[in-house]
Design brief:
Elements: E1 9-14, E2 18-26, E3 31-40, H1 48-66, E4 73-77, E5 82-89, H2 95-107, E6 117-127, E7 131-140, H3 141-154, E8 158-163, H4 164-173, E9 184-185, E10 193-194, E11 203-210, E12 215-221, E13 224-231, H5 235-241, H6 261-264, H7 306-317, H8 336-371, E14 375-382, H9 391-399, E15 402-405, E16 414-416, H10 418-422, H11 432-439, H12 454-529, H13 535-543, H14 546-549, E17 553-560, E18 566-572, H15 575-586, E19 591-598, E20 601-602, E21 611-620
Parallel strand pairs: 1-4, 3-16, 4-8, 11-14, 14-15
Antiparallel strand pairs: 1-2, 2-3, 5-7, 6-7, 9-10, 11-12, 12-13, 17-18, 18-21, 19-21, 20-21
Helix pairs in contact: 1-3, 4-11
Length: 634
């Protein structure tokens, strides 16, 4: 894992008989699925403690085999365990006040033990005058506590808990906007409407997730979720009804084969649907409704599904004349008993499809009565059940609305990593709820819902703070250790360098003294060769100075030592004359430095005025010219 790149996030779909775990890395251009697997629990004991231990053991063993450690996991609780209601609250910008109003509304729909329920809310839209559209969610505390206990025993760090209906709704919000001129536009903050031929934009969209153990249904008007419910019409119930001991392979089923021949071959049915669901809009013709079509959605409640009920009744009485049941390979008839089993499986599959469409109709009926839901215009499908052959065509025939894939228009699109494909991960659409849960972060979005108990959140915050303190302390200790090591190493290098310099100086000290002696001898030799620096020449220069010529200063001694200093001694009547002599000597071309050593006053016999005796030392200038046979730069 790259510590400087995107960190993977984990989503866990909680089911009764298995958990689906997805680990994804969200990037700008795609959602990469690193791991996708299911953990089946098998037969579970009856007592709650044994059931928790069995599930935790299965999870721990599965994670150990894959060498995974799940941190920051986000749970997706099934809708069957959660109460979800749409409410429009009064306008408010105060989040505390909004949370109190959402809790009050949610408690009205909790039948018992409202005090132990965990309540959250999801903001879908704000209007300055109309109010705030929210979805209130409530789950019984023991349900979440049991899941947290399983995760704690399995070593899973849980960061948040969400609801499957909200995860399905967020998938819808992730859908990219349709191209310009498209009849449908979807996305966060945009109306999920479909219009055709100038029809009214007051239409509704249904989201359907056909999972392993249940199916989720969410009805939307524009981008507002009006109603959500779940039913047990999942693939597991289909397999049990068909008498299968193995999970149903949805890609081996054909939904359109369960319709009567008139319904399959009708010229009025929509064309084959594929590609981006944003462009899948279909309105059946008003003159001659398609078989099973749901045209008059806004009619009277008594006659709204009359034609659909008649079509379904005909489908029950008319045996399908399509190919033999194309389900699991073990169901293909080989003898009379196999033929009987295949017929029973066909009937079970047809009954399952009818039940699923009936649940969609019931959901719409309730939304129509309670929220005045407009006519359905489109149906977006996800989950493993979406892979049933020609399932979208069947739902179009049964409900008379356009149907398309929900995950096909999600941006960025989820895709399996090569490692996940090699490990046999299923299609991303099967794990749509887990992926949507993994991508949600309630701490960074006002739309997020976190149904974890406050005690768990406080404990987790304390653990994170303790971990942060310990990590900071460890990093500080490492930094101090590294600084100490660096300081010790630097001092050792300095000591080694000083010792090396000392040895070098000791080794070259005699050589340096010899070179200095040679340079001094060369300088003396050059001075002897230069007559301008001889004693007579210097004495003649001194005698030519003004203070000496006019007799203000009398010289009594001139000491000259070649290459060293020149000493002048004498007397003068005033100190000003002595200073003038010293300044003139300092400006001479022979000396680089002059100094008056002494000038005491002296009284001479037969003179009332004292005189000053002086002594001036002069240092000669060094020879600036190159010595014979040597370079000027040394």
């Amino acid at each position: 894992m790259n510590p400087f790149g995107k960190q993977p996030v984990t989503g866990i779909e909680i089911l009764e008989h298995e958990w689906r775990i997805v680990q994804v890395v969200p990037t700008t251009g795609a959602i990469t699925v690193l791991h996708e697997f299911r953990v089946p629990f098998g037969p579970l004991p009856d007592d709650p403690a044994g059931r928790v231990a069995a599930k935790a053991g299965a999870l721990r063993e599965s994670l150990k085999q894959r060498r995974l450690r799940l941190t920051e996991a986000r749970l997706c609780i099934p809708k069957s365990a959660v109460t979800v209601r749409y409410r429009r609250l009064p306008p408010s910008q105060n989040e505390t006040e909004l949370a109190q109003m959402a809790r009050f509304e949610a408690e009205r729909h909790i039948p018992f033990h409202a005090e132990r329920h965990l309540i959250g809310y999801h903001v879908m839209g704000r209007e300055e005058l109309a109010g705030v559209d929210v979805l209130t969610v409530a789950v019984d505390g023991p349900v979440v506590e049991e899941v947290l206990t399983i995760c704690a025993q399995a070593g899973i760090d849980v960061a948040s808990a969400d609801v499957s209906s909200l995860a399905l709704y967020r998938l819808f919000l992730m859908r990219r906007a349709a191209p310009a001129g498209s009849p449908m536009k979807t996305g966060a903050g945009e109306a999920a409407t479909a219009t055709a031929g100038g029809a009214s934009s007051a239409t509704a969209t249904a989201l359907l997730h056909i999972g392993e153990e249940s199916s989720e249904i969410v009805l939307l008007q524009n981008h507002i979720a009006l109603f959500a419910r779940s039913c047990s019409a999942g693939l597991r119930s289909l397999g049990e009804a068909m008498g299968l001991s193995v999970p149903v392979d949805p890609s081996g089923l054909d939904a359109m084969a369960m319709l009567p021949a008139a319904g399959r071959d009708s010229p009025d049915r929509p064309a084959e649907l594929a590609g981006d669901a944003a462009a899948l809009v279909y309105n059946p013709p008003e003159e001659e409704p398609a078989p099973g079509g749901l045209l008059d959605l806004n009619g009277s409640p008594e006659g709204r599904f009359e034609r659909l009920a008649a079509a379904q009744e005909g489908a029950k009485q008319t045996p399908p004349d399509g190919p033999a049941f194309d389900g699991n390979q073990s169901l293909r008839p080989a003898d009379s008993s196999a033929t009987e089993r295949t017929t029973e499986a066909q009937a079970a599959f047809q009954a399952w499809l009818e039940r699923l469409t009936q649940e969609i109709r019931r959901t719409y009926e309730f939304a129509y009565r309670e929220f005045n839901c407009p006519a359905l215009s489109s149906l977006l499908i996800s989950g493993a059940g979406a892979r049933i052959g020609r399932m979208r065509e069947y739902l179009e025939r049964a409900l008379g609305v356009s149907a398309g894939p929900l995950l096909g228009a999600v941006y960025p699109p989820p895709r399996l990593s090569p490692a996940a494909e090699a490990a046999g991960a299923g299609p991303p659409g099967d794990a749509a709820l887990a992926i949507a849960t993994a991508l949600d972060n309630p701490e960074r979005s006002e739309r997020g819902v976190n149904l974890l108990p406050e005690a768990h959140l406080r404990r987790r915050r304390r653990q994170r703070q303790s971990y942060a303190v310990m990590t900071t302390a460890a990093l500080a200790l490492c930094a101090l250790s590294l600084a100490g090591i660096l300081f010790y190493r630097q001092n050792a290098n300095i000591r080694e360098a000083v010792e090396a310099y000392r040895q070098f100086i000791d080794a070259n000290r005699a050589r340096v003294a010899e070179i200095e002696k040679m340079e001094f001898e060369i300088q003396v030799f050059n001075e002897f060769r230069n007559p301008n620096k001889s004693a007579l020449h210097i004495l003649d220069y001194v005698c030519s100075l003004d203070v000496v010529e006019r007799g203000a200063v009398k010289l009594t001694a001139f000491l000259f030592e070649q290459g060293k200093e020149v000493t002048l001694m004498g007397h003068a009547f005033t100190l000003a004359d002595i200073n003038q002599l010293n300044e003139d000597l300092a400006r001479s071309p022979f000396f680089r430095k002059t100094e008056i050593l002494d000038h005491p006053p002296t009284n001479l016999a037969q003179r009332t005025q004292p005189i000053y005796q002086f002594k001036i030392t002069c240092l000669p200038k060094l020879d600036e010219g190159p010595a014979p046979g040597r370079s000027a730069k040394r």
